Predict the structure.
Amino acid sequence: MGSRSRKLASEWKDWLAAEGGKLLMYARQRTGSMEDAEDVLQDALARLWGYQEERDYRPPDLALAYSVVRMCGLDWGRKQGRREKKHRKIIELHTYEDHWLDRGAEDDEEAQLLREAVKVLSEKLREVVTMKVWGGLTFAQIADVLKISQNTAASRYRYALEQLEKQLRHLKEARHG
């Protein structure tokens, strides 16, 4: 392996170590299971590599990576078919084991309440929250990924936060009587 190849491999390895977890979480949000999310992310990384020829194969911008993961997730969803997708969602509601937040916070009541509240957000709102909070993207990057305006991205984020606040208040009241 030449020094250029080693350098590229190192750059991609570093980039993936820094951004891979965020992208996997986003793919997880798009697919419904960790196994499918890993498949979507792998497909996205292969596509990203191909897109990078004009950039001399340097690691991609994070917004482009999110966009490609999103497109791969959409492709994955179309491949699953409506019937299987509906069946999977019903099962998922009853056996939901994966968590939106850090697993280290599993015992924290607030984290559990937040996970429950995030699950009931619409896909559009959940997507923006995931990219903003856990992905660290700016509204401009989110807008680019979702092909919406920055104002729409910011508005969805604000609305999601309002919904989460209401939902958390309701869940706390329900738990504490």
The radius of gyration is 18 Å. Confidence is low (pLDDT under 50) at residues 89-103. Residues 1-98 form one domain.
